[in-house]
Amino acid sequence: IPQLRVRVASATAAAQAGDWDAMLTYRLGPWAAATEMTRARPLLGFGPGTFGAEFATRRLDAELRHRRRFVLPRETSTFSEAHDDYLQLAAECGVPALLAALAALGLLLASLGGKLVRDADGDDDGTRAEIVVIVGLVASGAVAALAWFPLQLASTAPVLLLALGRGWRLSADQS
After folding, report:
1. What is the dihedral of CA 43, 146, 12, 155, to 10 degrees?
2. CA 115, CA 112: separation in Å to the nearest integer?
3. 175: which DSSP letter?
4. Which of 26, 46, 98, 108 lies at a CB distance of 3.0 to 4.6 Å from 90, suitable for a disulfide?
5. Nearest-angstrom CA–CA distance, 116 and 127
6. What distance in Å separates the CA atoms of residue 162 and residue 156, rounded to the nearest whole number?
């Protein structure tokens, strides 16, 4: 795939040059801005949807704190997402909200994993296969959220939210 080959080559060149910003497609700036937001208001954050409005100010604060520039490809560029759903949640809603979300995610995956182990003999109604698919979707979304924003996109959020809801329903079944 030509575009993938170009991206891998540019990331490799950036890594060899020690240019982490370019290698991470300039995500260090939004990550630093989200971290600054979290440092400023750790308990309640700035409010849902405020990252875009706070990005430039908080990125500049991070540059002063770290004594380095968080360069963007174009000077007119801005970010409305932190490119990390966990950092964005902490910045917008506070650390307690992030911890609650991570605990819920961990409990869900543990519950579904336990259900898979308990029902290892097989099932007649296809629930086991459904759990495997849900665990795969939720785990993929959780990993993608580390450097992307799947819960902010109309194409991925509904799938993940439906998988989470169905996962909770299946984990609540006592059968």
Report:
1. -120
2. 5
3. -
4. 98
5. 9
6. 10
